[in-house]
Amino acid sequence: MFCLLFVMLPACQKNGPGASDELIAKLRANMDKAPESEAQVEDLNSLAKEIVEKDAFGDMRRFEVQGKIGKGEPCSRHPDCMQRGFDADDWVYTIGQQPESGVYFLPMLFIGFDREGHHSRSHYIVRDIPEETK
User: Taking the chain, what is the end-to-end CA distance rounded to the nearest angstrom?
Assistant: First the structure.
């Protein structure tokens, strides 16, 4: 029994620090910043896309996501989240803060969890910025 457990342990361990950790740290660093231009909003859009496309939260549990980027707003408060099939207690985040000098459509990140509290899916909403305003 000990040998079987020993052989299975490496497969059960989480991967070490990597691209996902860097992406999540970049996300956290940008969540409280106000963009000063459409180009900076586009950078936030790209970050939201990359977080989802690279499945940055992988198999994290709810408390791990909260520890990395804080607790999101409940999806029940955001019709866009609910319309995309997320549960009322899944979380939604706005990436960035509105600047004092203007209003931008900031990217939104939805994070869903299964019944056991594991990250099960992510989705983003961004506004495409016309080339002439970049």
Answer: 61
- Evaluate if pTM is beyond 0.85: no
SS3 state at 53: helix
What is the DSSP code (8-state) at residue 55? Answer: T
Q: What are the pLDDT digits (tens) for 59-82?
A: 899 999 999 999 999 999 999 988
* 125 Cβ neighbours under 8 A, 6+ residues apart: 80, 107, 108, 110
d(C-alpha 75, C-alpha 64), whole Å: 18
Query: Nearest-5° angle of CA 118, CA 47, CA 11?
Result: 40
CA 122 to chain centre: 7
Per-residue pLDDT of 84-102, as tens digits, reads 999 999 999 999 998 887 7
Tokens of 38: 């459409």
